[in-house]
Amino acid sequence: MSSLVAAHTRYLLIEQIRVPIGLLASAFFPAVTLVAFVIPFSADKPQDATMSTASLMFFGAMSGALMTLSINVAQDRELPWNPYVRTLPAGAFPRFTGRMLATVATTLVSVIPVLLVAEFFTEATITPVKLLLGLGVILVGIVPFVLMALFLGFTLTSKAAIAVSQILLFPMAIFGGLLLPPQILPGFIEAISPYTPARGVAELLWAVTAGTTPNTVALVMLAVWTVVAAIAATWAYRRDEGRRFS
């Protein structure tokens, strides 16, 4: 089984590299945001620059997890190859796992441009241990967004998944304080922010990279969002399985 998972992962990575626009978009926009909005105002402030860098690294990862995965899953469902693979004795597990591993790999790649811009153009500071902890938080933090992407992919067509994932991405990033510091957000957004999943991940990132104290409400709500997204993704998968293969 492990060889099948490795084969599917390699195939899906090659497929993504051949059409890299999604990966480039996930990496490009956060880096440009760092250049346009962080460097002019916070480049010489170590803590602010570090927190902004962490936020935008996660924004790139969240974009890849939510948008790319939901669209890929929806497209898979529309291709004749995917139903055939799901009827084979090995079942859907190898391809499904390969899709998850490919998403994780591209997520790690998407954070590199932001990290490089911060290293060369800001006073952001971080130790190797904190960097590894931050990357670990990013990988764990994308879980609810991966689950949301699966829900969208299993319930929507590819065209609808493109639109809905985009509609969800930017409000969650803005309300979660990833694009603007929470302290300068309008009052009503600041009040809602701790209840969004992105804010919970941001709080953890700021804690491990910049030494801040995380907001307890945001962490609890992150756990709630993860459980709800897991239930929704499981329901969507079983619904799709029952409609197409029962």
TrEMBL record:
This is ABC-2 type transport system permease protein. It holds the Pfam family ABC2_membrane. GO terms for biological process: response to antibiotic. The keyword Transmembrane applies. The keyword Acetylation does not apply. InterPro entries: ABC2_TM, ABC_2_transport, Nod_factor_ABC_transporter. It is a multi-pass membrane protein. GO terms for molecular function: ABC-type transporter activity. It comes from the Bacteria. The chain crosses the membrane at residues 21-43, 55-75, 96-121, 133-154, 161-180, 216-237. Keywords: Antibiotic resistance, Membrane, Transmembrane, Transmembrane helix. Residues 11-196 form the ABC-2 type transporter transmembrane domain. One of its GO terms (cellular component) is ATP-binding cassette (ABC) transporter complex. It is found in: Membrane.
